[in-house]
Design goal:
The chain is mainly α and about 350 residues long. The protein is about 75% helix and about 0% strand. Strands 1-2 form a two-stranded antiparallel sheet. The chain is globular and about 60 Å long.
Length: about 350
């Protein structure tokens, strides 16, 4: 099953171009972030450095730190505090990825073998803790209590979101509201924080910080909705992780939640066996995809992603037109167009 049959809001090539323009707009800042990432990953413990080099080599779009850099520039910031804070955001994100892959038993991350697939579970968990420590060192070095409040709060919310997701795994009573609460915590909270600190370092009024927070929160929700749709419909080489991972782990994501609401007795029995009991057999993933296609729930999930993307765009209306606002608007297109 592929999403190619769904008509995109904008061609993927245009969205990729929007991402590249956003990246080039703060290319020097982003290069400084990358250098600081490498410098702060150094450790006297060889395994920490080795695992850290694996993470750097895996690359990634650096969307979250990019949001911090663009938000700061949007708000007229001309200093360099945003470099350390963007690095902090990236470390928080990477730490959560290390922990998530262990919890989920994932073998792929960004198209490469995950750290836990290479080193087992213990080292990635501990290196994730190391990255959280590095992030908090960067926060305290910044010296702003407001920045510390934003990022520390986001870290706590992310952890709560991951635990909440564990509680919903295999629970067929999970509804859309509960699911949205989970992804707001585990994904959107860091998008929001990444944007808020950009306003905070610039000393902008609370209304502007709140507007950037809304932008980041809605963008993060849209991003996760697309991710959850792709898990049932993407090319694994393009997605950079195993397709069907959510199904194999018994996760209740929106495509399944919507299908459950429309399920007949036979379909509900299928979901109970495969997700609740984790009794999965050859051909079950293909059958799951067929059920989702029959009910149109991947498309419905993407429609919701587009709606949240529009909310993100509207949040930026308080800012005057600028290259930086245009870049942030372009990132909305990029995040949603990953589905196509």
């Amino acid at each position: 099953m592929r999403i190619g049959s769904l008509a995109p809001a904008r061609p993927e090539a245009v969205a990729e171009d929007a991402f590249e323009r956003a990246r080039l707009l703060v290319a020097e800042d982003l290069a400084r972030v990358n250098r600081l990432v490498v410098a702060r990953l150094e450790s006297r413990v060889p395994l920490v450095a080795e695992l850290a080099r694996h993470l750097v080599a895996a690359g990634g779009k650096r969307i979250r730190p990019l949001l911090t850099l663009l938000a700061a520039r949007l708000c007229g910031y001309a200093g360099d505090r945003h470099i350390g804070l963007a690095t902090c955001v990236e470390f928080i994100h990477t730490a959560t990825l290390l922990h998530d892959d262990v919890v989920d038993g994932s073998d792929l991350r960004r198209g490469r073998a995950s750290a836990n697939a290479i080193w087992g579970n213990k080292a990635p968990v501990l290196v994730g803790d190391f990255l959280f420590s590095r992030a908090f060192q960067l926060m305290t070095a910044d010296g702003s209590l407001r920045v510390l409040e934003i990022l520390a709060r986001a870290s706590a919310i992310i952890a709560e979101g991951e635990v909440a997701q564990l509680e919903t795994t295999g629970d067929l009573t999970t509804d859309e509201a509960r699911y949205l609460a989970v992804i707001e915590a585990k994904t959107a909270a860091l998008f929001e924080a990444a944007c808020r600190v950009g306003a905070a370092v610039a000393g902008r009024p609370p209304a502007e910080e709140e507007a950037l927070g809304r932008y980041g929160r809605h963008l993060g929700i849209a991003f996760q909705l697309v991710d959850d749709a792709l898990d049932y419909a993407a090319d694994p080489g393009r997605l950079g992780k195993g397709v069907g991972d959510d199904f194999r782990e018994g996760k209740l994501t929106l495509p399944v939640i919507l299908a459950l609401a429309r399920a007949d007795g036979e379909e509900r029995a299928f979901w109970q066996r495969t997700l609740e009991q984790l009794d999965q057999r050859e051909g079950d993933l293909e059958r799951a995809c067929a059920i989702l296609a029959r009910h149109g729930t991947v498309g419905a999930t993407l429609e919701r992603a587009r709606a949240y993307g529009e909310e993100a765009r509207q949040a930026l209306s308080v800012f005057p037109p600028s290259r930086f606002r245009e870049a942030l608007l372009g990132l909305v297109d990029f995040c949603i167009a990953r589905a196509y």
